[in-house]
């Protein structure tokens, strides 16, 4: 309907479509980067993960997305997704009475999502924010494991029953540290993009 009105005013179909995509991309950015974070129940990182994912595929598996570390922090992942649906960024599709998949909130949004992800500076900025959140999550896991190891280390005589737990905690810490180092390397590359490009 909006496209038809623009064409009636004399715009070419390509120009009209491009303008609609630009306007949608601008609306999406205002929505996810809104400085008044008290009125929303999602983080820019959560919205960005959805945008990046939906830019390349028409739908996402609902439950798979909930397993993402970005959706494990803050309010429940499900309430976050429902809030993003109310904001019309996404649509949650149900099958057999349960949430099944996630699609862009409007048909034009997939093209707008793609346009946003093709902006190297914006992508670097938001990816950097997401990496910072992931680093924070991994560091919290390391601190929790360190605390439990300290508690287990205080037991008299190192009981044999806790050895498997100690090994598991050490493995978990090693995996988390490897993830932090990987995220830090990615962050360094993104910072260079922000320093060199406009």
Question: Residue share in helices?
Answer: over 70%
Secondary structure tally, helices: 9
Major sheet: order of its strands? 1-3-2
Q: List SSEs in N-to-C order.
A: HHHEHHHEEHHH
Structural shape: elongated
Low-confidence stretches: none
Distance between the termini: 35 Å
Number of strands: 3
Largest sheet: 3 strands, antiparallel
Tell me the structural class. Answer: mainly alpha
How big a fraction of the residues is strand?
A: 5-15%
Mean model confidence by pLDDT: 90
Q: State Rg.
A: 22 Å
What do you see in this structure?
With 198 residues, this protein is mainly alpha-helical. The protein is built from 9 helices and 3 strands, in the order αααβαααββααα. The chain has a 3-stranded antiparallel sheet with strand order 1-3-2. A hairpin with a 2-residue loop joins strand 2 and strand 3. Helix 1 (2-8) crosses helix 2, helix 2 (13-32) packs across helix 7 (107-118) and helix 3 crosses helix 8 (120-153). The longest helix is centred in the last third of the chain and has 34 residues, at 120-153. The two termini are 35 Å apart.
